[in-house]
């Protein structure tokens, strides 16, 4: 790209990028690539926003891209496709390598690859509460990969004049599907806040000492995450869903979502699969023990005695300063520097945390010993076992995945139906039309039970004069208007129909403004009156 054109693009699209690039030791090829990437984002973003609905403003998106280049990218290296490194990337089906620690990117020389790398660099480390330990890995993968594919779509599927979902370039079409269902139902703000740190929040000051900020002791140590007391975003997402769709749909949706991500992770990670199988075995063993109440209570008593013994040992150390100091020196003696305990007082705090944890375990055991609680625990274990069995983790065929996807999409459609019922404003119904159109075009499409939802939405939008009512006969009106849900015309407000009737067939010529897009034919078996004139251009959205 000639220098004068290079400068013109910077001036036209973002002067801030010029300032950033002046301070970076990037090659001219990298700088040109970044500018070309930014040009494509600028050129496609309004179409992307129109189609997707649930996205941030372009200004915000571009700002985050620029801040990432400025603050998190010190080195960007272009990889040649025919080089040894390039061949390895192709073999592993990846187009870039991101080294967050060293702020380094290696990428193929195309806009999608470098945007992919920058989007990955932008994402912050996701921390989860320990109660999500069993599903921590799949949740992180779903959110990070889903969020990356969602943002990459701006130049992957849009080119400034057309839109087409490109499945072959998706990292994981199942995660993409789940992620899109989730943001259609609750919006993207909460997830963006979590994954991309979009919303700055005040946090407690954390000691900068390397020892304190490291996970140096899995049994007793205090992690950076614990000291921050980070918000439980999983709980916030579920809470948002609950407020919108109620208890039953929330339970059903997230149970299915977790089942799918467990299955997908089990397909690719044998260790994770073993972990889930071990959990199933433990539940089965626990239920087996609970068949004999007397034996079950005896085992609980033994556990309780062991824990009380541990608490007594901790109390002995905490009540004797000399013993505490002795223990501190003994522990640190053979530990590497990064794992050493910071101070005696810090060791004391670790013991206090461990004591608190053990007391909670005692409380849980006492609860299990109560007759009513015993019944409740047994019922919960049985439900948990049914949950895992329904996944059929040993059956890793696509058929099994599609079965679970169909189940979650059925719940999704019930939620969309509820959204339609609650929507009264024109903007709300228009948004649902775009969302339902986008949903139908997200691969893989495994749920065909959308007719009822489409009919419901078209009927309400026609009655409120948001959509043109072509006929008072509901079925005819539906057959004419349902074409919008499979249309790839970016702006549905630009769709224009002309209708022609010949021997029992109604022909629809569909235009994107003045440009003919496609022709559809509808069989008319009974005499039908139309509210519009034939052979005349009619807008789908009249106002």
Describe the SSE topology.
Blueprint: H1 3-13, H2 15-22, H3 28-52, H4 58-72, E1 75-79, H5 84-91, E2 96-99, E3 104-108, H6 111-122, H7 136-156, H8 173-186, H9 189-196, H10 224-228, H11 233-268, H12 270-289, H13 293-318, H14 321-333, H15 344-369, H16 371-391, H17 398-422, H18 426-441, H19 451-463, H20 474-481, E4 495-502, E5 505-512, E6 515-523, E7 538-539
Parallel strand pairs: 1-3
Antiparallel strand pairs: 2-3, 4-5, 4-7, 5-6
Helix pairs in contact: 1-2, 1-3, 3-6, 4-6, 6-7, 7-8, 7-11, 8-11, 8-17, 11-12, 11-16, 11-17, 12-16, 13-15, 17-19, 18-19, 19-20
Which strand order spans the largest sheet, edge to edge or round the barrel? Answer: 6-5-4-7
Relative strand content? 5-15%
Distance between the termini: 44 Å
Counting DSSP E segments of at least 2 residues, the number of strands comes to 7
Low-confidence stretches: 1-10, 200-229
Round the mean pLDDT to the nearest integer and report it: 88
Overall form? globular
Instruction: Kindly state the percentage of residues in helix.
Output: 55-70%
What's the story with the biggest beta sheet?
A: 4 strands, antiparallel
Radius of gyration: 29 Å
Q: Counting H and I runs of at least 4 residues, what is the number of helices?
A: 20
- Along the chain, the helix and strand elements come as HHHHEHEEHHHHHHHHHHHHHHHEEEE
